[in-house]
TrEMBL record:
It is a multi-pass membrane protein. Residues 30-160 form the VTT domain. Pfam families: VTT_dom. Its main location: membrane. It is found in: Cell membrane. This is DedA family protein. Belongs to the DedA family. Keywords: Cell membrane, Membrane, Transmembrane, Transmembrane helix. It comes from the Bacteria. The chain crosses the membrane at residues 12-30, 50-71, 140-160, 172-193.
Length: 205
């Protein structure tokens, strides 16, 4: 897959970045953890500019997020899960993946779209529960764009700094993403505890 990513980016330049990030959001097995670091390495070689590459990555991601959003909005949760059981193996999406993304959305509300864009394994599919829950398009685009911009910038900058070793981004990101996930869960638990205490205080009053 690495060679395929390199060929597309080399031949299509910024359009290649946008296309690859678009496909990455449609088909999770295509890793942004390799696409944008490679773009960063290419920038370090002087063959691309940083901000056009960043823009292409964000634009491709956002365009790729919209199909999943509208699938969730039009098809509905149960139908999507049934389709995942039947055809999900072809694009590496399972019922469990959908349920995980759905739980994220319901726990964090609209902010889940922002946080979800920063967590591998959730970021691609967070559009589904947003659509299922009929989240308005404008807030969806705003939260998604902010989260996506941060994610794409981090990956591109990491690839720029690592140079020829840009592939290490994918290797190092796996444990880091777990830490981020744990921190977010801890923060969520703390928030829920605080909310419960507030409700108890209100009842006593």
């Amino acid at each position: 897959m690495n060679e395929w990513i390199v060929q597309i980016m080399t031949s299509l330049n910024y359009v290649g970045i946008g296309l690859l990030m678009f496909l990455e959001n449609l088909f999770p097995p295509i890793p942004s953890e390799l696409i944008m670091p490679l773009a960063g390495f290419t920038i370090a070689q002087g063959k691309m500019e940083f901000f056009p590459a960043l823009f292409a990555g964000v634009l491709g991601t956002m365009l790729g997020a919209l199909p999943w959003y509208y699938v969730g909005k039009l098809v509905g949760e149960e139908n999507i899960k049934r389709l995942a059981d039947k055809y999900g193996k072809w694009i590496s999406i399972s019922r469990k993946d959908i349920e995980k993304a759905d739980q994220w959305f319901h726990r964090h509300g609209e902010k889940a779209v922002f946080f979800g864009r920063l967590v591998p394994g959730v970021r691609t599919l967070i559009s589904l529960p947003a659509g299922i829950s009929n989240m308005k398009l404008v807030p969806f685009l705003i939260y998604s764009t902010i989260g996506t911009t941060i994610w794409v910038w981090l990956l591109t900058f990491a690839g720029y700094k690592l140079g020829e070793n840009y592939e290490l981004v994918d290797e190092y990101l796996a444990p880091v993403s777990k830490i981020v996930f744990i921190v977010l869960v801890v923060a969520l638990v703390f928030w829920l505890v605080q909310k419960r205490r507030q409700k108890q205080r209100q009842r006593k009053v």
